[in-house]
Amino acid sequence: xxxxxxxxxxxxxxxxxxxxxxxxxxxxxxxxxxxxxxxxxxxxxxxxxxxxxxxxxxxxxxxxxxxxxxxxxxxxxxxxxxxxxxxxxxxxxxxxxxxxxxxxxxxxxxxxxxxxxxxxxxxxxxxxxxxxxxxxxxxxxxxxxxxxxxxxxxxxxxxxxxxxxxxxxxxxxxxxxxxxxxxxxxxxxxxxxxxxxxxxxxxxxxxxxxxxxxxxxxxxxxxxxxxxxxxxxxxxxxxxxxxxxxxxxxxxxxxxxxxxxxxxxxxxxxxxxxxxxxxxxxxxxxxxxxxxxxxxxxxxxxxxxxxxxxxxxxxxxxxxxxxxxxxxxxxxxxxxxxxxxxxxxxxxxxxxxxxxxxxxxxxxxxxxxxxxxxxxxxxxxxxxxxxxxxxxxxxxxxxxxxxxxxxxxxxxxxxxxxxxxxxxxxxxxxxxxxxxxxxxx
Length: 441
Description:
44% strand, globular, ten-stranded antiparallel β-sheet, 441 residues, single chain, mainly beta, Beta-galactosidase, Chain A, domain 5
């Protein structure tokens, strides 16, 4: 019940308690210095924020990520002015104006309650202190929480560290004794926010290959209620017939991304669909044809087999002369059909400074505009597109969810497509292979 979520948060805040969460990961070791071009490149554009709100990390594989951070009274952590500079690029490539959570919508299967955790349940005020062991090898930054419940609003709540992610690539060379392989490195930025029984781990992974992965992990304590779970809306937890029943529910997580590829907000949206047809006479296998559709007006999009979208730069090209872009790569999702704004997987809307949350948006966006993202898709031309993604998880409890509850993750990635002319981690001796399988004569 709502009162139970509310009272638990207030009790913990008043007591000044913190709850340990999972370790942030393995620290990436320092690598060799990357060779610099003889001609000094243009100085990187400095983030507009001061040093206290600046994140800059050069990974051991040569890639540098730069961004600013701030803390919003409803959305929590907001990352801004995000740029990516792999080795071989003389200056940073700007990717995003801003990246933030857009909502966490939690409807319960019994129909008695639903929550909008960001705009309706003090997500931002539930920022948790992090212990040093949760940010190994990294830095924990202090955040001043707006409208904090605590006497001291300063929370040591933002971890920035590096993490190994395993193989970035592996390739057998022309001779049996030559293997090209590299271990990938990530910059990890995360916070933990408590909402009622749950603790949400909001993490952003900036990979050395230019990919950005954003996840929400729910952990903490399982929310439960005492009723008959035999009706298909809950699950028994504990021993015997009198065991407590955990109410099943959904977590519908939204993200809001404001792209600015190459420093311009005049990006284009493209949708790709592929069709597979049976082998024609004389063909050995089925054939596949991919078509491109320019998305020129606001769109509520649905994922399907062989469909994907990309955001295309209107201001910059890579060294091969191809327009830079980022592809949207959804993670596993269970789409919740109960509300209009959760019925679609992705939304492309024209920028409006007050359209900040996918549901129960508190801003005054104009008469009749509505307070949810589905209402904003009304045929307006896309000149400065904003991308909204919806990733759902239907949580049917299990005995293993207690106690504490293991983290269950939901999220997605944006992957570079033609941002660089080759793999940004390509070893020098393979640099000649851009578009060729053997050296030119």
